[in-house]
């Protein structure tokens, strides 16, 4: 099972209470399931509005279950940002 780092930004960081944490997951969907289990409540609501980068690449509209994670990779959790 790949070990990845999930990094939280802005409102996601505030809701998680940490800047980053490790997870074991083969897909983005599995990693986000782990995030929801570890941080029920506000972070679950924030995640609905977030976009994600996996190893620097935007996930976009791809199904999270189709986005494979690599061992040592990074998932960035990006809430909407104000401004331009």
TrEMBL record:
Metal-binding recorded as keyword: no
Official protein name in the record: Molybdopterin synthase sulfur carrier subunit
Any one cellular-component term (Gene Ontology): molybdopterin adenylyltransferase complex
Signal sequence interval, chain numbering: none
Keyword Nucleotide-binding (UniProt): yes
GO molecular function: nucleotide binding
Record-stated family: Belongs to the MoaD family.
Record-linked Gene3D superfamilies: 3.10.20.30
Pfam families cross-referenced by the UniProt entry: ThiS
């Amino acid at each position: 099972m790949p070990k990845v780092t999930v990094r939280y930004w802005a409102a996601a960081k505030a809701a998680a209470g940490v800047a980053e944490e490790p997870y074991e997951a083969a897909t983005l969907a599995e990693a986000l399931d782990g995030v929801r289990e570890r941080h029920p409540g506000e972070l679950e609501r924030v995640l609905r509005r977030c976009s994600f980068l996996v190893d620097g690449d935007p996930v976009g509209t791809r199904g999270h279950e189709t986005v494979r994670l690599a061992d040592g990779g990074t998932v960035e959790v990006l809430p909407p940002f104000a401004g331009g």
